[in-house]
């Protein structure tokens, strides 16, 4: 059984920070220009998932999703003045489940994330 190295812990913490930043920015823009703000926010979450899978693998996707979901959950609560950033209307509910967009990276082909060189066929 391999122990987790300090480098791996650092990568997981960095991915968690990326998830938090994506969650904050996505929460800010998901209602900016309907529906394009939401689309942009979801594409950003999916891109963060691809980054995570390329960098550390499948566990990284979970870390990104955790960062996004936790951040959106915190920001969805009522603020001191009673305002909410994520309303219970269709666009807000879709964004609330937006952390699932990171999971799209899990269904991409494994060869896209492989460091093995692509063979060019028979060489003369």
UniProtKB/TrEMBL annotation:
Alphabetically sorted, this entry's keywords are:
Membrane, Transmembrane, Transmembrane helix
Residues passing through the membrane, by range: 12-29, 35-52, 59-78, 84-108
User: What is the designated name of this protein?
Assistant: Uncharacterized protein
**The organism of origin for this protein:** Actinotalea soli
What are the top taxonomic ranks of the organism?
A: Bacteria, Bacillati, Actinomycetota, Actinomycetes, Micrococcales
